[in-house]
Design a protein that fits this description.
single chain; about 120 residues; mainly beta; 7-stranded mixed beta sheet; 4-stranded antiparallel beta sheet; globular
């Protein structure tokens, strides 16, 4: 079974960079036909899609966050990462990594989520 696990600091200062890693087991992030995604849920808000990196290595981002977002991967470790720059308290959220299928948006597998708080 595919499993995903988020990791990284739970507290980030305003104006700094949020950096998270998703470790994948039970499946390869280079396998055909899958996207490896990041999403977040701020307190009292709905789930917001951040972006994804495809099995080919191409990355795509939500237009609202594109200027501050970078998703990359380390295939040797079967990991992909999220970097979000210039954070503010509005970036406080539970951050999730997930796998979906190309063209389907099924999001079959999810990590448990990790809380990130932006505060001085």
């Amino acid at each position: 079974q595919v499993q995903l696990q988020e990791s990284g600091p739970g507290l980030v200062k305003p104006s700094q960079t949020l950096s998270l890693t998703c470790t994948v087991s039970g499946g390869s992030i280079t396998a055909n036909n899958f996207h490896w995604s990041w999403a977040r849920q701020p307190p009292g808000k709905g789930l917001e899609w951040i972006g994804y990196i495809a099995y080919s290595g191409s990355a795509y981002y939500s237009p609202s966050l594109q200027s501050r977002t970078s998703i990359s991967r380390d295939t040797s470790k079967n990991q992909f990462t999220l970097q979000l720059t210039s954070v503010t308290p509005e970036d406080t959220a539970v951050y999730f990594c997930a796998r979906d299928s190309t063209g389907l948006g099924d999001f079959r597998y999810w990590g448990q989520g990790t809380q990130v708080t932006v505060s001085a």
